[in-house]
Amino acid sequence: MASLHCSSYFLGTNLTKQNSIAIFQSYSPTSFTKLASRVSHQRSLLCSLAMNGCEADHKEPLRTVETRTLSTVTSPAIATEKLITAVSNLKTEPPSFSSGIIRLQVPIDQTIGAIDWLHAQNDALPRSFFSCRRSDAGRQDLLQDLASENVNGSSDHNPVSVAGIGSAAFFRDLSPFSHDHWRCIRRFLSSTSPLIRAYGGFRFDARGKIAVEWEQFGSFYFTVPQVEFVEFGDNSMLAATVAWDEEISWTLENAIEALQETMLQVSSGIKRGKRESLGVSVVSKNHVPSEGAYHPAVTSALEIIKAENSPLSKVVLARSTRIITDTDIDPIAWLARLQREGQDAYQFCLQPPGAPAFIGNTPERLFHRKHLGVCSEALAATRPRGDSAVSDMEIERDLLTSPKDDLEFSIVREKIREQLNAICDRVIVRPPKTVRKLARVQHLYSQLAGQLRREDDEFDILTALHPTPAVCGCPVDEARLLIKQIESFDRGMYAGPVGYFGGGESEFSVGIRSALVEKGLGALIYAGTGIVSGSDSSSEWNELDLKISQFIKSLEHKPALQPIN
């Protein structure tokens, strides 16, 4: 049966689902904006209806996957009106297919930040956000070195950021992500509709016990948003998507009515985040493990690593930091502040219905696939940025010449090379080792690229690369077992893959530098460090503090740092 997120209900009114749809149909596009404004002022708790695509037969293809592009407009308000009309027309003249997905999209001749659009939307709806790194110089050159025109394909007009509300279809299960689950998602995707994408993520440990704060995410959670705002480099786009499958009792009529309910909540306004302050103060901070418990844990891990005949060369031990604030944290406003100094990072937000918001500002790519080309990277070892160009260069030299950091980084790079070699015909690495500088920290870094034997190998990319030695350890099985024994909290999706599946292209980051934001409960901020022979527990604890400093300082009104050139 189709899954019900929650029924529609408006505070202070008796507006039922049937009445809201009738009102929707009776209003003209122009007067609709006024209605939507009044409804939003009543603080609607409307949640969307959607189907869980995991319940369908993954062997049965959808009858239609299509994108309909309407004429370009000049503002989000006009785009909203055009979509309202287009959705009504779709209901009047529905296609005769028993299953399908249709995306209606309106280009906007204006550059608008997707996160600013999302910030203006109803926070009771499921939300998603994914922003690619703004500076990926060198990636195309590395893929071109594979000397295959299939690697890069055509140069599509790729989004910079995508924000979504509601779910046209979602995919969630308590059991670990399987090939059948992947095929369920792939049913809804096509290279002919490249912007129909499923955004989401996976738990770090799919077989671990799920803590209460992570329950709504399941073992994995993906969504094809009902309404999306897409930010390109020089323009924008508003889109609405319907998905249906009569096999699981979710008809096109159900899908359109659910979309209309969500459209009632769409705001055409843009809410740009404040640059100076979120208006939030941290009242308390509690680490799990505490510093007193962390040092013995590192000592125990080092004893295992150094033991004779021990296969373990590295393990990543993480920490969860609970911060309590004087007022609720707005996760989108927080993410917007992180984005300003994270130009060389992915930003993401995943928020299933009724769940906390999982946000992140991660520098690390798990993989990017475009047709047959796949690119990954090794990122390990951490140092702070210097307060001057001279000190920054001294820190960089120390990082490059440190035997301990070289060992940690080499373990990560060689393991990823080995994993890509298992699914690719040829793998290149360039450079073998360099320093990647971010706003507050710098890391050892290398890129790796290969050519897949088949595009269907995408599931194998995930299973091969996750978890990487950078977030788990090496060998993975031994490291994961030790993590389960030592860590006393649920990582959830921290350090798991977060990104999107698309028809001709997919991209996943590694969900580090992340936090789980809960109403009334502050936030959980996660960080981890790699333990190898030569590690010092005090230095590792300080590194954990350094890694969460970006989150804490952005919350406590500290201005974003400007990278040192």
From TrEMBL:
Signal peptide: none annotated. Gene3D superfamilies: Anthranilate synthase (3.60.120.10). The keyword Transit peptide applies. GO terms for biological process: defense response; phylloquinone biosynthetic process. Its cofactor is Mg(2+). Pathway: Siderophore biosynthesis; salicylate biosynthesis. Keywords: Chloroplast, Isomerase, Magnesium, Plant defense, Plastid, Transit peptide. The keyword Magnesium applies. Pfam families: Chorismate_bind. Its EC number is 5.4.4.2. It comes from the Eukaryota. GO terms for molecular function: isochorismate synthase activity. Belongs to the isochorismate synthase family. This is isochorismate synthase. The lineage of its organism: Eukaryota, Viridiplantae, Streptophyta, Embryophyta, Tracheophyta.
